[in-house]
Prior knowledge:
alpha+beta
Amino acid sequence: MERVNVSSSNLRSIGYEESTKTLEIEFKQGSVYQYKGVPKNIFENLMNANSHGTYFHSSIKDKYPTSRIN
C-alpha cells in the first residue's frame, strides 16, 4: 500500500485502500499497523486533522481490528 508522509510527532506515514477499507499507519519508531473496516471519512478526517496523532488516538486506536505488519 502506498503511504503519504505526514508531519507528526508520532506518525511517519499514512495510507488507505478504499476497496478494503484498510488504513495503514507507519509510526516514527518504525512499526507499521493496519486497521480494518475504517470508513473513508475517518481516513479523510485523519489526513485533515490539525494533529494526526491526537485524531488517531481519539478516533482510530482500539476502535478497529488491528494487525502489525512490520
